[in-house]
Design a protein that fits this description.
Elements (H helix, E strand, L loop, with lengths): L4 E6 L5 H10 L3 E7 L3 H7 L7 E3 L2 H4 L7 E4 L6 H10 L3 E4 L7 H14 L3 E3 L7 H11 L6 E9 L4 H5 L14 H5 L1 H11 L2 E9 L10 E8 L4 E7 L9 E6 L2 E6 L2 E7 L27 H16 L7 H20 L3 E2 L1
Parallel strand pairs: 1-2, 1-4, 2-3, 4-5, 5-6, 7-10
Antiparallel strand pairs: 7-11, 8-9, 8-14, 9-10, 11-12, 12-13
Helix pairs in contact: 1-10, 4-5, 5-11, 6-9, 9-11
């Protein structure tokens, strides 16, 4: 095993800089190459790294024998193409959210990585939120009794200029959806991670404020496999963007939390102070996607290194990462059909 794990990045857009910063900060990682149609953008990520190589075609980059991990930072609808090619080249993959935008393609990604014997991890940095971790543990410890409601409010603001900044944004082919698939996928992931898997959904989605193909506003009613109910509200159409917020209600307690910490921590029969939280990792990005911190990405870079060296599964593997997308796809199907849809 080499002293350093060598990473390559495919796609040099907004999110790629968080991967690059995390790789460059990690003592056991090295940024070896970046591939992007714009060598100017790629060059910004490798500035000061004399040995890092730049490519326009990621397929050429994958021929490098000394690349260990490929970070997939391309538009969502191309994740499967890059991941499968990387797996076939024997490279581990750290994919940005969402895993992909299509169920069959996600299956193909997972199968390709399993067949090649490489790791497939996906970045869901909001799973590191201290408030979420405390809430999930409290539910598992039975503190709220029987869970009856699990709600997620994911109301972001994205300007018309944001959607015009990249030809792929707001398209079904490459973005795969809007307020849910792009911005809201983190919150969709969290609510099912806390409450457990969803059995069925009934939903409305619409494009109310932006000139885009996909939804900028969505509401879904959930029935969890546990028997509990829930609501997801997602938007990029509201101004100003709101703090993302989660409500977990049981017959013996309530927990509410958001980007800024725990709002309510109440249990029947005893007073328990809300946990004192550590830094929230700078994960809030309800209004400006460039204001997030790279701390969460550093965790996933480190996790991939440890997964490779310890021959274990990544923190969020392919099977786990697809759950949020499968739920969103069911919401879209319900909105199109006007019917309740099984997940």
């Amino acid at each position: 095993m080499p002293d350093k794990i060598r990473f390559a990045i495919v796609g040099a857009g907004v999110i790629a800089k968080y991967h690059a910063e995390s790789i460059r900060q990690h003592p056991d990682a090295e940024l070896a190459a970046v591939a992007d149609n714009s060598t100017e953008k790629a060059g910004r990520l490798t500035e000061g790294l004399t040995d890092a190589r730049l490519f326009k075609d990621y397929r050429e980059m994958l021929k490098m024998e000394d690349i260990d991990v490929v970070c997939v930072c391309t538009p969502s609808g191309s994740h499967s193409d890059v991941t499968i090619a990387a797996a076939q080249a024997g490279k581990h993959v750290l994919c940005e959210k969402p895993l992909d935008i299509n169920g069959d393609r996600m299956t193909a990604m997972i199968d390709a990585c399993r067949k090649a014997g490489v790791k497939l991890g996906c970045v869901f940095q909001r799973r590191l939120m201290p408030a979420m971790l405390h809430a999930r543990q409290a539910l598992q410890d039975g503190k709220i009794g029987r869970p009856v409601l699990g709600n997620a409010y994911l109301k972001y603001y994205r300007s018309p200029e944001y959607y015009k900044s990249g030809g792929w944004r707001g398209t079904w082919r490459l973005d795969g959806g809007g307020a849910l698939m792009n911005q809201g996928v983190h919150g969709v992931d969290l609510i099912q991670y806390i409450m457990g898997e969803v059995e069925s959904v009934f939903a409305y989605t619409a494009t109310l404020a932006r000139e885009i193909e996909v939804e900028d506003t969505a509401v879904a009613a959930l029935k969890y496999k546990s028997g509990a109910f829930g609501i997801i509200q997602a938007a990029t159409s509201v101004y100003p963007g709101q703090e993302t917020r989660f409500e977990i209600h049981g017959d013996q307690g309530t927990i509410e939390f958001g980007d800024e910490g725990i709002k309510q921590w109440t249990f029947m029969g005893h007073d328990e102070p809300a946990p004192v939280l550590e830094d929230t990792l700078g994960l809030a990005s309800s209004s400006n996607p460039q204001q997030i911190s790279s701390a969460g990405h550093y965790f996933y870079v480190d996790d991939m290194i440890q997964a490779i060296r310890g021959n274990r599964e990544p923190h969020v593997n392919g099977e786990e990462a697809r759950k949020s997308v499968d739920l969103i796809l069911a919401i879209y199907e319900s909105a199109r059909s006007g019917k309740e849809v099984k997940v």
